[in-house]
TrEMBL record:
Record-annotated active site: 445 (proton acceptor)
Co-factor binding details: Binds 1 FAD per subunit.
EC numbers on record: 1.8.1.4
Disulfide bonds: 44-49
Protein name, per record: Dihydrolipoyl dehydrogenase
Pfam families in alphabetical order: Pyr_redox_2, Pyr_redox_dim
Length: 466
């Protein structure tokens, strides 16, 4: 039997990879994880989830003080100014403490960090930083990178045309930011810079924002973001961007074709999606091909078609989300160890961390209708006592259930704490709950979560507070 340096070698230390490595080590497997970044944590901790949430939190506080919310509570403030350098510094502090935390966890669990980019030599060996390393099992967790827009050159250092990484690191508040793509990144980072004082225009190819979310949620999102002052140009495509000094001129036209017009901006954020990242990995050396979408395909257990090679996270099909990658990381390690690691891909919640938050799990109303007869219950946040008390009137909760069995098929929330509320819905659905199960579960009062209970009651037409 062949001898290997490690039982498990994970390539990539993002939420998929670092979690797989830690779980494998916890299960007694000799484990290493390769990543060439200066710090662990991948896209999510370094240039994704964490820095974006730090800026969303800071900018929300700034907006609250500036837009008069404090006045509602009798809190008087003086002139409010922004120290963007300090706000960026606290973002970096959060990133540093969390990426350092992963390094600590690697040491604690005896995971070896191989600092460098790995390239396959064969199915059981890679080269990392000039060294050959062998492993019985290799997990590809190389994540994703920004999808480029043809003809538009991103230069994050110059700060005029930026991607999400540059959009998180701006050292000035743009006067006019044009966001190309009304998806999750566009709306989160667009919200950050709008709150900090930029005029923000979102150019979206489709006729609604947030593709993949429930139709009602998408319509409401457009209303809410418009009300907040974003200029939305839906059904519009960017055909070119010219940069002259610090200014950009975008040429746009209706998505279906038509008369072109121009928009001037001093910052353009390109946020039209992400694509799997396998550059330099040497998949050809092991005969592993990616599919038409550039993804590494796996079976239900996260095995690729090459014996001993597994894959998880953004690089495989499914939503590109940190928690999906993490759950797959745990499952793949358990499968390698001979246990049964499972991820229920039908119940991966999605959250947009704007204000209010937009969250959903399971089927949209449109998709559920295609599968059969459904019942829908909806409850507005305006009628929820806690949201009303907190002056958070926007949003609703919507519960979609099977007309015959009443089993919940999907839940959609727009609320200040929708991201937290959706965990309860996901858990209920994981346990096969009916809308009646949720309606008859006692919810603490006064909480936003009561809106979920009332939406479940509304499925049979009997909410109390509406
Ligand atoms: P990644 O996190 O991309 O990690 C892959 C790692 O592999 C990288 O560190 C890379 O350096 C390394 N790597 C690549 N090739 C090699 C190689 N050959 N050798 C060694 N290492 C290699 N998701 C959420 O769920 N919630 C959020 O709030 C959220 N916010 C986001 C905000 C932004 C701005 C962005 C860009 C993304 C956000 N995401 C969010 C998505 C989330 O970051 C990804 O889904 C998640 O990071 C995927 O994890 P992963 O482990 O598959 O890959
Ligand atoms: P996205 O897929 O969410 O949105 C991209 C948007 O760009 C879509 O609405 C699409 O129709 C539009 N688009 C595409 N081409 C266009 C063009 N030429 N002109 C105008 N619009 C165009 O992708 P995004 O926002 O870049 O985010 C990438 C991924 O990162 C997300 O899919 C998500 O998985 C992850 N992410 C998750 C977050 C979260 O969970 N809160 C936060 C940020 C990112």
């Amino acid at each position: 039997m062949a001898e290997y340096d490690y039982d498990v070698l994970v390539i990539g230390a993002g939420p998929g990879g670092y979690v797989a490595a830690i779980r494998a080590a916890q299960l007694g497997l000799k484990t290493a994880c390769a990543d060439g970044r200066e710090t662990l944590g991948g896209t999510c901790l370094n240039v994704g989830c964490i820095p974006s949430k730090a800026l969303l939190h800071g900018s929300e506080k700034f907006d609250e003080v500036r837009n008069g919310t404090f006045d509602l509570y009798g809190i008087k403030t003086g002139p409010v100014t922004l120290d963007l350098t300090a706000m960026q510094a606290q973002k970096l502090d959060s990133v540093k403490s969390l990426t350092g935390g992963i390094e600590f966890l690697f040491k604690k669990n005896k995971v070896t960090w191989l600092k460098g980019y790995a390239a396959f030599e064969d199915a059981h060996s890679v080269t990392v930083a000039g060294q050959k390393v062998t492993a019985r099992n290799i997990v590809i967790a190389t994540g994703s990178s920004v999808t480029p827009l043809p003809g538009v050159t991103v230069d994050n250092d110059a700060g005029v045309i930026v991607d999400s990484t540059g959009g998180l690191a701006l050292n000035r508040v743009p006067e006019h930011m044009v966001v190309i793509g009304g998806g999750v990144i566009g709306l989160e980072l667009g919200s950050v810079w709008r709150r900090l004082g930029a005029k923000v225009t979102v150019v979206e190819f489709l006729d609604q924002l947030l593709p993949g979310m429930d139709g009602d949620v998408r319509k409401e999102a457009a209303k809410i973001f418009k009300k907040q002052g974003m200029d939305l140009k839906l059904s519009t495509k960017v055909t070119g961007v010219a940069v002259d000094g610090g200014k950009a001129t975008l040429t746009v036209e209706p998505s279906k074709g038509g008369e072109a017009s121009t928009i001037e901006a001093d910052c353009v954020l390109v946020a039209i999606g992400r694509r799997p990242y396998v550059d330099g990995l040497g998949l050809d050396k092991i005969g592993l091909e990616v599919n038409a979408r550039g993804q590494v395909e796996t079976d239900h257990d996260f095995r690729t078609k090459i014996d001993g090679v597994w894959a998880v996270g953004d690089v495989i099909p499914g939503p590109m989300l940190a928690h999906k990658a993490e759950d797959e990381g745990i499952a793949v390690a358990e499968n390698i160890a001979g246990l049964t690691g499972i991820v229920n891909h039908d119940l991966i919640p999605g959250v947009v961390y704007t204000f209010p938050e937009f969250a959903g799990v399971g089927l949209t109303e449109e998709a559920a209708k295609e599968k059969g007869e459904i019942k829908v219950g909806k409850f507005p946040m305006l009628a929820n006592s806690r949201a009303k008390t907190n002056h958070e009137p926007d949003g609703f909760v919507k519960v979609i259930s099977d007309a015959k069995t009443d089993r919940v098929l999907g839940v959609w929330c727009i609320a200040s704490v929708a991201g937290t509320m959706i965990a309860q819905a996901t858990q209920a659905m994981e346990f096969g709950a009916t809308s009646e199960d949720i309606a008859y579960t006692c919810h603490a009062h006064p909480t936003h979560a009561e809106a979920l209970k009332e939406a479940a009651m509304a499925v049979t037409g009997k909410p109390i507070h509406m």
